[in-house]
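tl;dr need the bound structure. longer version: we got a ligand (zinc ion) that a collaborator sent over and nobodys looked at where it sits. i said id run it. heres the input, straight from their email, havent touched it
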Amino acid sequence: MKTLWRSIIDLFFPPLCPCCGKAIDDVSALVCSDCVASFDTTRHVIEPDNRVLQLFADLEKVKAAASYAYYYRQSALRKAILRLKYGGQPELGAWLGQLAAMHFLQLNADWFDDVDVVVAVPMHPNRERARGYNQAEEIARGISQVIHKPLISGALARVADNTSQTHMTGEQRRKNVVGAFELKDNQKLKGQCVLLVDDIVTTGSTLRDCIRCLNPLRGTTFKVMTIGVPMHEGQIDESMVIDRATD
Ligand SMILES: [Zn+2]
């Protein structure tokens, strides 16, 4: 909730939209209504075999996957996500998470019913310290608030800055390291349906590493949710690679 002082400041100096720079008309929004209207939303939650799920087709514990909207170079959504990641505006994450969860519920009121817990793709602690927050966790927080399922932090950790490694040492295998991720807590996610959240999905390799790391947990299943996905199948333009590489 805004403080009285903040509300007075906003009255005289309305906050500016991070996507287009115009004053924001809706006091409860963080992006102007024109830019929100321009978000090119998907219908993934009523298309069970959508192309985000196809990225995880060989992982049998993944029950569903969906992105909120298409993401491309000039899109307002990309500008909002870049501001969230690099503009020191973590509140944009929770707001985007809420917007996406509400969109999913509007299309498919049952989509979150089987979800038990919400988990964000973790960030490496050094990077999180530098940024001050993990944008995926902020998005997950917004989703958790809308769907009333708990956000679990710390069960999965990012232990390496690199994104993928095919060969593991014996010690890494013993420590449940897959790719850049390590399972830190065996109990919190065991037997749960985990809603795994990230800002954007491109090749799916980061999310796949998270799922493969959690895969040994007995009875655990997964749903994947991201805010953005490339516009066309197989399209990953240079801007997206740059956006991802700096994670
Ligand atoms: Zn705008």
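gonna send this back to them w/ a short note. The beta strands are 62-71, 117-120, 156-158, 177-178, 181-183, 193-200, 221-230.
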